[in-house]
Amino acid sequence: MSWFAVTTVFGYLLWRFPRYQIWIVMFFTLWATAMNYTALLLKQIHLLKWSIAETFMFAIFSHVLLLYAFKYLHHVNELGSTETMFEDSFSRFKNK
Questions:
Q1: What is d(CA 54, CA 65) in angstroms, rounded to the nearest whole number?
Q2: CA 53 → CA 32, 37, 50, 72, distances in Å?
Q3: Phi and psi, residue 77, nearest 5°
Q4: For the segment 32-66, what is each residue's pLDDT rounded down to a tens digit?
Q5: Distance between CA 23 and CA 89 in Å, rounded?
Q6: Cα separation of 67 and 73, whole Å?
Q7: Ordered DSSP codes for 22-65
Q8: Model-level pTM?
Q9: How buried is 59 (Cβ within 10 angstroms: 0-12 exposed, 13-18 middle, 19+ buried)?
């Protein structure tokens, strides 16, 4: 249940700012990894046969999967890989 609100925010940001989907996915991936690492350091969780690197890779996979699920369910054509995806995500820096 605790991830429901985070997933809702993730979907909203993707819908509202599709041009920055790379940054949104990376932020949520890094955030999930950092929270997992913090919980590990505070001894709130124990990772048997699992590492933080695997957590990071799973977070990338799951957030990209969520991105495409959101695209499919809500017909947001701006989401997903396109030829200009990297150019669009860095366009804010070019305009300055």
A1: 16
A2: 12, 10, 8, 29
A3: -70, -20
A4: 999 999 998 998 888 888 888 999 999 999 999 99
A5: 7
A6: 10
A7: HHHHHHHHHHHHHHHHHHHHTTS---TT--HHHHHHHHHHHHHH
A8: 0.78
A9: buried
Q: Distance (Å, rounded) from C-alpha 44 to C-alpha 65?
A: 27
Phi then psi for residue 36, to 5 deg, are -65, -40
Specify the amino acid at residue 55: T
Instruction: Name the one residue in this structure whose structure tokens are 């669009």.
Output: 88
CA atoms of 69 and 35, how far apart (whole Å): 24
Tokens of residue 82, six digits: 């396109």
> What is the C-alpha separation between 7 and 73, in angstroms, rounded?
14
